[in-house]
Amino acid sequence: MSTKSTNTSVEESQENAENRRKKGEFVRGLSGFRNTIGDDDFPIESGRYHLFVAFNCPWCHRATLARNILGLENSISMDVVFPGRTNEDHPAGANLWEFNPDRVSTLTGEILPECTLETATGNNFKLVKEIYMNEGSTEQSVPILYDKKSKRIVNNESAEIIRILNQNAEKLGSTIIAEERVDLYPENSQLRNEINALNDKIYTAINNGAYKAGFSSDQRIYAAAFQDYFQTLSELETLLASDGRKFLTGNKFTEADLRLFPTLYRHDPVYYLRMKLNGAKILDYPNLWRWLCRVYGLSGVPASNSLVHCRQGYFGRSWNNTIPLGPMKPMSYPEAYNHPDLVK
Ligand SMILES: N[C@@H](CCC(=O)N[C@@H](CS)C(=O)NCC(=O)O)C(=O)O
After folding, report:
1. In this structure, is residue 33 part of a structural domain?
2. Shared domain check, 140 and 256
3. Does residue 155 sit in the same domain as residue 247?
4. Atom of ligand 1 nearest to the CA of 59
């Protein structure tokens, strides 16, 4: 077990992780592949890299947001797994991500058109686990940034994947000219400090905090996560209200916004129920709601995800195999995020 100190804006401290897990706390493990691109092993080339993602996974959502916002849809290819894991009757076992575009969604009664086969390794793997096994690893998580030329995993930590894409967007083949492209992590030390501080808070209390609330089986751990989550939402609401800023650090969208978005986008339709985060809806926070709609309105953001996948993935096997359909008021989601009466 690793007890080395961790960057808590990227990953959770592993101190006493086994003990904490035994007591019912959900503790997220560390990601094993932490390479970057731009050296001899992984040169920066357009068309060379690939993403493996699940649309229901919020960590993958970071990567798909970065890919779309930075204009990398044409130069970074992508495969999408089915949002539910394998069942007990699967020959490889249960709870695995699978590439299965023929699998029928229990929500829609149809296949999910975004799901793909595995197209990057040359092996037509059926399971994400096989991509890792091919490199002697027992991990099984998404997202993965993959090198199609050397056939190796570059990185499986979303916080680092988005930095890699941002830093190298131009040479990776962005279709957006530099002057018009968002810089998620601009070279300005004061701004970077602000982004880092927000990342730390948002990762701990919101992104990972939602999982701690939803997946821990100890009431006190759940209650602390619940409280921390809503306390942080209130702080962010106050921050946005303070001077009418459009985004978390001012008038430009940055990595801090990108990292907040996947959780808040899921909050009303999924996490409110599934993660037991039923203290309030984002709709109850006027500034956070406007921020959410504003980010949803950025080019490439709606296409970076699908709430059908989120609903299917989070509620699929639990909840008696039926998937809650709401909210319906004031209207359905994600349409609410760009409805003219609600986006003010
Ligand atoms: N640190 C990783 C965490 C990714 C992660 O936890 N992904 C989940 C899906 S939401 C996963 O695939 N877990 C492995 C599994 O459950 O089999 C990152 O942010 O990239």
Report:
1. no
2. no
3. no
4. 19
For residue 340, pLDDT beyond 90: no
CA of 187 to the centre of ligand 1 (A): 29
132 lines ligand 1 (CB under 6 A): no
> Domain span at residue 57?
49-180
pLDDT for position 205? 98
Residue 341 is predicted with a pLDDT of: 77
Query: According to the model, what pLDDT value does residue 4 have?
Result: 53
Which residues does residue 98 pair with via DSSP β-bridges, in sequence order?
Answer: 127
Q: Is the dihedral of CA 187, 188, 189, 191 positive or negative?
A: negative
Total domains in the chain come to: 2
332 within domain boundaries? yes
Same-domain status, 143 and 214: no
Q: Would the CB of 304 count as within 6 Å of ligand 1?
A: no
- Counting residues of the chain whose pLDDT is more than 90, the rounded percentage is 90
State the average pLDDT over residues 113-142: 98
Closest CA to ligand 1's atom 19: 158
pLDDT in tens, 31-51: 889 999 999 999 999 999 999
Return the residue matching tokens 């930075």: 70
Catalytic site positions: 57, 211
Q: Is the pLDDT of residue 3 over 70?
A: no
> How does the average pLDDT of the chain come out, rounded?
95
In a domain, 27, yes or no: no
Our CA angle for 209, 323, 56, nearest 5°, is 45
Residues 67 and 121 reside in one and the same domain: yes
Give the atom of ligand 1 at the shortest distance from the alpha carbon of 31: 1
- Residue 100 pLDDT grade (very low, low, confident, very high; cuts 50, 70, 90): very high
Distances (CA, A) of 213 to 22, 167, 240, 264: 16, 33, 25, 15
97-126 average pLDDT score: 97
Question: Which residue(s) pair with 79 in the sheet?
Answer: 52
Nearest ligand 1 atom to the CA of 95 is: 17
Angle at CA of residue 85, ends 143 and 322, nearest 5°:
125
> What is the DSSP secondary-structure string of 249-306?
TBSS--HHHHHHHHHHHHIIIIIHHHT--TT--GGGSHHHHHHHHHHHTSTTSGGG--
